[in-house]
Amino acid sequence: MAVDDDAGPLETPDGRYIVVNGRLWRKSNPTLTPVERQQFTQDLMAARRDVGRGQRTGDEHAVRAARARVDEAKVALGERGPVWWDDGAPDYGRKLAKNTPYAEWFAQVEEGVC
């Protein structure tokens, strides 16, 4: 499947997920303000840097603490934890698109139909 890199990642029609290597990843909560999104994203990037720093120095305690901060930031962004939509639909994050209700849509995308 060829995806235009300039267009960004493939997004499901309902806007809940992006698709990476055929797998669904939950998008950030669209109701976050730009300031909230920026702050949570900065928190996430700092925590990820700290994971790497802890790994390079062999500090397993620092790695665990930083990974907990990564998780907190991803929950704040809406990418993990409770879903941000309110229609009762389940979360298919981290699942292969072909094994979800998005399977037909994804097959058409792969075939270049849509």
Structure in words:
A hairpin with a 2-residue loop joins strand 2 and strand 3. This protein has two domains: 50 residues, no CATH class; 45 residues. The model has no long low-confidence stretch (mean pLDDT 94). By secondary structure, it is mostly helical. It has a three-stranded antiparallel sheet with strand order 1-2-3, with no helix packed on it. The termini are close together. Helix 1 packs antiparallel against helix 2.
**How many helical stretches?**
3
Gyration radius over CA? 16 Å
Q: What's the rounded overall pLDDT mean?
A: 94
Q: How many β-strand stretches?
A: 3
Strand order across the biggest sheet?
1-2-3
The oligomeric status of these chains comes to single chain
Low-pLDDT residue spans: none
**Main β-sheet description:** 3 strands, antiparallel
| Strand proportion | 5-15%
Helix content, binned percent: 40-55%
Order of helices and strands: EEEHHH
Distance between the termini: 12 Å
What coarse outline follows from CA principal-axis ratios? Answer: globular
Number of domains: 2
Counting helices, strands and paired strands, the structural category is: mainly alpha
